[in-house]
Design brief:
This protein has 3 domains: 22-140, no CATH class; 145-267, NAD(P)-binding Rossmann-like Domain (Rossmann fold, 3-Layer(aba) Sandwich), CATH 3.40.50.720; 273-460, no CATH class. Helices cover 49% and strands 12% of the residues. It has 468 residues and is an alpha/beta fold. It has 14 helices and 11 strands. The protein is flat. The protein has helices at residues 3-13, 22-47, 52-65, 76-101, 109-140, 154-165, 200-206, 221-231, 272-307, 355-362, 370-376, 389-398, 428-444, 447-460; strands spanning 145-150, 171-177, 193-195, 211-214, 237-240, 254-257, 260-266, 313-319, 325-331, 380-382, 411-413. The strands form 3 sheets. Strands 3-2-1-4-5-7-6 form a 7-stranded mixed sheet.
């Protein structure tokens, strides 16, 4: 089958809205939510309270209708038709099961009859409300992501048109890169040609490009690998558009953009619902921890002020999400506050460390103010540990894929730290080991893994001899 035909058929079967976006997430919950809530409201209105049989029915209903279909681009008449047909199937099946099992006797006939005609109307009202609110919801998701496409071929230009025609995507397509002469390319009127593939890395860095879609043919396997190698010093999320050779993937997660399937090469695990879970857990845990440790924070602050001259807090520049600079807070543990182009890592018996600072670093009490960074949204409780800007600039040139760790927010503790890579990394091999563990965390993130890392950190922090 021709690639364009394959992509067209995929588009008909897939949602045109990115399911990792806020609007996409709402669409997934819209139909099941409307059906369940309408059932609950009618039951409470007629029965006076929500009885167990109706709760069981709502659970079954949610399982049958989740995830809801994307209908944001349908015409009004098509929307009405799809809702009616879908409800005839769902409602008919529920009635059949109810009569077959005789479980329908547990329900009020008045409730069921009322709900059977109110339910599709609630779906229709919900979809119309989403259409009205979609522009506002889009603004809540923040600024658009800058994107480019590599390869002005059939699937590349098809993807470009899908992005340009979708007003609900947070993607600002800047243009397309291709090595061929302009005379051999189509659609130059619609999308600007930004340059050749050799110009790609510099353009991505200078213009802070966040999404890169590689639409290169299978025959270009060596060129693909070369492009990937050159882009490893950026923080852009990279996706393959199918019909190409896929090898040595860093993450290899599948997804779709405007109904076109893509395979991520370098991406953050914290899109969509995962991002909400991660940020929510960070906010709640950091707030609770700060409340619990407030006496410790006050005691340490007083001790620092009484034992050595200088500020209580030490602020240092670090690279945060997408490689952007942030300021992180630590209790001052040294007689100096270095934040320049050359920073020497703390070493064993370092003369710059104060007596109190030695205790603070040994017990990691100097890291506690970073929970304020977490509360601000600059850091996470668990993630790759942030390095000084000077160290980043050094190691990004020495370790391939180093900047990929900045696809997520830096953490107070991380997978590398609970696996023996805490403290000084005096050799390139140790830093390589730390980076390998950071990338492993990106591939395998889960909320359970975060909780395990937090527990391991608490267990090892007082007996770890590698922190100076």
């Amino acid at each position: 089958m021709h690639p364009a035909n394959t992509l067209s058929s995929m588009h008909r079967k897939n949602s045109p809205i990115d399911r990792d976006s806020l609007i996409g997430g709402i669409e997934m919950l819209l139909d099941p939510g409307a059906l369940c809530i309408s059932l609950w409201l009618i039951t409470i209105q007629i029965e006076g309270l929500l009885l167990p049989p109706y709760l069981l029915l709502s659970v079954l209903l949610f399982a049958l209708t989740f995830p809801g279909a994307s209908r944001l681009h349908c015409s009004i008449w098509r929307l009405i038709l799809e809702i009616a047909v879908n409800w005839l199937w769902v409602g008919g099946m529920l009635l059949f099961v109810g009569f077959a099992t005789r479980y329908i006797r547990e329900f009020s006939s008045e409730v069921l009859i009322t709900w059977l005609w109110v339910a599709p109307l609630s779906q229709l009202g919900s979809h119309l409300a989403l259409r009205a609110l979609a522009p506002f919801i889009k603004t809540l998701q923040g600024p658009q992501h800058r994107a480019i496409i590599v390869g002005m071929n059939e699937q590349g230009t098809l993807l470009a048109h899908r992005i340009a025609d979708n007003p609900y995507l947070r993607i600002d397509l800047k243009g397309i890169f291709d090595d061929r002469a302009p005379s051999r390319l189509d659609d130059l009127e619609s999308f600007p040609l930004l340059g050749k593939l050799t110009d790609l890395p510099d353009y991505v860095k200078k213009n802070y490009v966040q999404f890169i879609y590689l639409s290169l043919p299978m025959a270009s396997q060596p060129r693909i690998l070369q492009v990937l190698d050159e882009l490893k010093d950026t923080t852009a999320s990279i996706y393959f558009v199918p019909d190409m050779f896929v090898t040595d993937l860093i993450q290899g997660r599948t997804g779709s953009i405007c109904g076109i399937p893509v395979i991520s090469v370098c991406d953050t695990p914290f899109d969509g619902i995962n991002g909400i879970i991660k940020r929510g857990s960070d906010f709640v845990l950091s707030l609770l921890i700060l409340i619990l440790i407030s006496p410790i924070l006050l005691s340490v602050a007083i001790a620092i002020k009484l034992t050595s001259p200088g500020p209580i807090l030490f602020k240092q520049r670090r690279y945060g999400l997408d490689g952007k600079e942030i300021l992180i807070y630590k209790f001052r543990s040294m007689t100096v506050c270095e934040d320049g182009n050359t920073i020497r890592q703390a070493q064993k018996n370092d003369s710059r460390i104060t007596p109190l600072g030695h205790f603070l670093r040994k017990t990691s009490l100097d890291e506690l103010p970073q929970f304020f960074n977490v509360l601000q949204g600059r850091m996470s409780i668990v993630g790759p540990r942030p390095h000084a800007v000077a160290h980043n600039e050094l190691y990004r040139k020495l370790i391939k894929g180093y900047m990929i760790r900045h696809k997520v927010k830096p953490g107070i503790t991380g997978w590398a730290q609970v696996n023996g890579y805490r403290g000084e990394t005096e050799t390139l091999e140790k830093m390589q080991g730390r980076i390998d563990h950071d990338l492993d965390y990106l591939r395998n993130w889960s909320l359970v893994l975060d909780l395990q890392i937090i527990l391991k950190t608490i267990l090892i922090v007082f007996k770890d001899k590698s922190a100076y």
